[in-house]
## 1
Amino acid sequence: MPTTAVSGSALRRLLLPVLLAAVLACAAPAMAADGDPEPPPTAPSWVTAFYKALSYEAITGYINMGSLSARPPYWMTRGYFGADAATGIATFYAHELIWSALGPAPGSESVAAVGLGKAITFRAVDMARAFALTLAFTGDPMTAAGIATASVVVDTSVYLLNEYGWTLFGPQPPGTPAPPPLPVARR
């Protein structure tokens, strides 16, 4: 039975609506029915960490698939994207839980300072993960270093945007002071 291959651009067109729906679904609960912003509800840190990991990996996976699927190297055809997604979610989730347990208390530092500290520690851990994963698939340390270095630029931007989005729209850990209300234009 012949198999049909899906091109990279067709796959991106299929995944884009799913990605947009996921982002909108995460942001929708933060708005009240009448359009007034309501404070985000609180949630256990493990629940928030799980959904933050999924949203981060959905965005970075989409970017990786788009940038590498046009002419994928031979080693990417052997399950690399699946292994990257699984280890990426696990790394993000573990980092979030450890940060919740050992990081600064909610509200004790500015959002920018906490975001920068989280971004630096996560990038260090995730860069090591990307290097190890690529090295396992290729056996070439130069390719692994290149992929890990490229992930620093792209994935750090996505990480900071993901954190910012979850700070504004997501449920907050217990004990976090409510953010100030957003200005709303009234008619």
Note: The chain has a mean pLDDT of 74.
## 2
Amino acid sequence: MDGTVSVKPGKRTESLDDVAQWQYRGNLCITHALVCLMKAHHTKSLGDLGVLKVQCNLFEQGYIPCIPLTEHAPYDLVACDESGCKRIQVKTRSLSTTGTISVRFQSSWAGKNGTHMVDWKKDSLDLVAVYCPETDACYYFDHTRFGRTVTLRVKTSKNNQAKKIHLANDYLRVP
């Protein structure tokens, strides 16, 4: 071995730092490409991306992410650590033009009798995780602290309002 590392077939680099930079840029490009493809495809694909991103983020925070054996559970994931397990509902939400991410605490589905919407039962899950493709970040909160919806602010508001604002950066860690 000559001390160089192969990143791609036919391309050589001098250090592992170069490899790390390529992997970081490559992962961002892959994520961006997946999001672009999925926007043109199906909402379930975007939901799957959100669940995958949350699983990775939970693992990075020291949790073991587990998937229920049925899609009919009121939660998408279970995250376990030494203190116990948390039932998590995952939502994928885009950043609005005003710099916010809004989440309604409802489930919806389409059936032969039309579209149905049902409010979540407060005791059916422990946390909500929201993945935002535009920020490539996951946000976590206890939905019982809010009413029927929550809005997380990513960008500063035009009027610089500071009261009664939920800054998205305050929700980057599992509570």
Note: Residues 1-41 form one domain.
## 3
Amino acid sequence: MIKDQNIIQNRDNQFSEIVLMIRRTKSTVISMANTSLIDLYWQVGKYISNKIAVSEWGDGVVKQLATYIEKNSPDTKGFSDKNLWRMKQFYETYCTADEKLSAVLRQISWTNNITIMSRAKTEEERSFYIMLCKDEKYRLHLPDKALLQQKLRDIYDSEEEK
């Protein structure tokens, strides 16, 4: 009886290791996919920004591009004219950022990037929130402003205590 329980416990431990491997791999795959998508959005934003900057494209061309993508790749989602403009804004907001920040941009979700870009007023503020999202591993949505303000106060208080 005790031997059977030990066998069952041993198998449970072994099986748990497999489940842990599966979870780690899923997390890695999601992270790699996010990085690739952010890179794609950066490249699309850069392309649109450059075309508009040299007056090859007017504002209406972005809407035409969104329609073209929808027609020629109907399974592709997330490339509405509104999102294409966000990609342009994303590129233009961070194209002069330092390498460290550029690398971190690719580690947080598109939703967090857009939220930070639209809410943060200064480069320093954007930088802080991007690092916070990375460090705290916020996944889907940036927390509300009150929570972020509390986090800032906590950081400030801990710095004063040192």
Note: The mean pLDDT is 84.
